[in-house]
Amino acid sequence: MNLDISLLQKKFGKSLIINESLAKYSWFNLGGLADIFFKPESKDQLKKFLREIIEKNEQVYILGAGSNTLIRDSGVKGVVIKLGSKFSDIKLIEKDIIEVGAAALDRQVSDFAKNNCISKMEFLSCIPGSIGGAITMNSGCYGSDISEILLSIKAIDEQGQEKEIKSHEIEFYYRGTNIPKNYIILSARLKGIISSRELIENEQKKLIQRKKESQPSQIKTCGSTFKNNNNKKAWMLIKESGCEKFYIGDAKISEKHCNFFINNGKAKSSDIEKLINKVKREVQTKTGVDLELEIKIIGNEK
Ligand SMILES: Cc1cc2nc3c(=O)[nH]c(=O)nc-3n(C[C@H](O)[C@H](O)[C@H](O)COP(=O)(O)OP(=O)(O)OC[C@H]3O[C@@H](n4cnc5c(N)ncnc54)[C@H](O)[C@@H]3O)c2cc1C
Known about the structure:
Elements: H1 5-12, E1 16-21, E2 33-38, H2 43-53, E3 60-63, E4 69-71, E5 76-82, E6 90-94, E7 97-101, H3 106-115, E8 118-119, H4 131-137, E9 140-141, E10 144-145, E11 150-156, E12 162-166, E13 172-173, E14 176-177, E15 184-191, E16 193-194, H5 197-214, E17 220-224, H6 234-240, E18 251-253, E19 260-263, H7 269-287, E20 296-298
The chain binds flavin-adenine dinucleotide (FAD).
């Protein structure tokens, strides 16, 4: 590590933790230690930290709510930055526009929109992540995704420079965007349409129920493991290839939705990753399709 850890500790106090266990920050409940875990208290502190580490060539990862991220057992030899509650404000800007901090949870944003009679954000009630993660992943479900409601983002580049990027300047694709990987999204403006609270609530309930029926809940998972293929959903390819009952140790495939991989209690990250690779190979052999990962895998291999 090229960083002077004790100097950083002096400068950033309790916002900086050395050797923090990352398992509690991933929905798989897995992952080793981060050399440096930084949870900024403010935008200014974040900028100061980035300026401090810029020259040192350290690996820097941004974590949202960790609902789409598998963290390797060896942890992160470098820096993990997680925006916390100081970055989760939700404000009404105009009657149909809200500004949300990147750490705000999708569900909270959906509820805030409902309480202000703003429609088009109902789908966020069933995505278990943060707004920063949802924008990075262009998350969505049931025919909607965040690109449709995003007006602009504010982000910080790796040098600590803040910029505003309008939605039309961003290229969105299925479960991703061209926002540079090292940008940290701070906040976003979202625009919906005015509707009745009752209609919005009914729509939210409908979507949540639909999710409950088709996907497992109360389990350690990061949702869909692979992206859907152009012609066929990933779960169909997994099923057709006979992988549904594959497992490695306690890394299993959900019986309810075979694109959801699970830590069934005592799995290691490496078990999940081995299971991913096993399924990928089998699907390639049986169908010729090279499945692409939807979840992100971070950390060092050894
Ligand atoms: C049960 C379950 C159901 C799910 N259903 C859906 C679904 O229906 N539709 C769907 O699209 N997804 C779904 N997901 C996946 C996941 O919830 C989404 O991808 C979510 O948007 C990820 O948000 P997060 O904050 O947890 O991101 P993380 O997992 O923390 O991070 C994901 C990516 O976003 C980046 N990131 C996070 N915050 C920031 C930031 N502030 N600035 C820059 N980069 C950032 C990370 O670096 C990483 O590359 C599901 C997951 C689970 C566990």
